[in-house]
Amino acid sequence: MIFGSIIAGATSEGGGAIAFPVFTKVLHIPASDAKVFSLAIQSVGMVAASIAILMMRVKVLWSVIGWVSLGGVFGMLIGALLLAPVLAPEVIRMLFTVMAVSLALTLTFLNSGFRLSNNAMPEINTKEAGILLMAGVVGGVISGLVGSGIDMICFSVLVLLFRVCESVATPTSVVLMAINSLLGVLLHLIVLDGINAQVHAYWLAAVPVVVVGAPLGAFCCSRMHHLQIRYLLIFLISIELFSSIWILSFDMTLVIFSVTLLMVFSSLMFWMSKSAVYVRKTE
């Protein structure tokens, strides 16, 4: 979590993006416990990073956060209440991997000379609000299953479709994940079975680390070159992908699910990258 908290504060990946694969693949902790831990630790770390972002007066898109968070509430309920009890652990683990790979595709598009022309969100009308709500629902479903995801989905939509620069999209996704993590923890405390003693012990051990590491990551992000952040994320996601292929036991159902989901995410990323609706007319 020393490493995870710094990544959480510096990038569009929450600390759960590091905790979830390590918990489930290395420590062999059940996916349900790893998800709850991810939400709980992010409710501290991402909030600390958000406070640092606000204190440094880094620009965030509050209108985007509002619309995506609204969709995230419904998505979180669907993921945690309806899907989590019926999906196999291997499916949930692979869902996380596919989501991470979709973020890597986004970063690859950016590395290929993709132009980010907007320093702010275009005017939000009915169409834009609907897109942000849908992104929130999808991201909320994933967060309800693996403990993170809405931040990565929001980041991809902002940079690929709306062409918002990374220096604005990244802190926006950090604040968004902080809010979503708090909502997820409240959902588990009030509606579901709460947080068991083992996860609570993990959380207590990690809190002193993330409360320092996440703000440090936010500070480092403000000083790092955007290419360094991209390459670091692509490297981490590559490890996640190869470890999933190596460790997980793939049957035909899991293969079909993984390939189908990857094709859907890839198609959406490709479509958003080719859409020129929100490119500034002066270009």
Automatic annotation (TrEMBL):
Keywords: Cell membrane, Membrane, Transmembrane, Transmembrane helix. GO terms for cellular component: plasma membrane. The chain crosses the membrane at residues 6-24, 36-58, 64-84, 91-110, 130-162, 174-195, 201-219, 231-248, 254-272. It is found in: Cell membrane; Membrane. It is a multi-pass membrane protein. Pfam families: TauE. InterPro entries: TM_pro_TauE-like. Belongs to the 4-toluene sulfonate uptake permease (TSUP) (TC 2.A.102) family. This is Probable membrane transporter protein. It comes from Methyloprofundus sedimenti.
